[in-house]
Amino acid sequence: MPLVHVELIEGRSQEQLKQLVEDITNAVTKNTGAPAEHVHVILEEMRKDRYAVGGVLKSDEK
Question: pTM for this one?
Fold first, then answer.
């Protein structure tokens, strides 16, 4: 049972997230031989004011 955990900053549409999950599932299936129904994908979206790079919150970027 492959488990893929993806952390990303919020802001993508439902359609983009659906496509991401489909693409990840296809890649895991292709490269591991696991059937798609056994591939688990967890998407964890972070708020922009809870993630920083170089000491700057993503919500403060211009």
Answer: 0.88
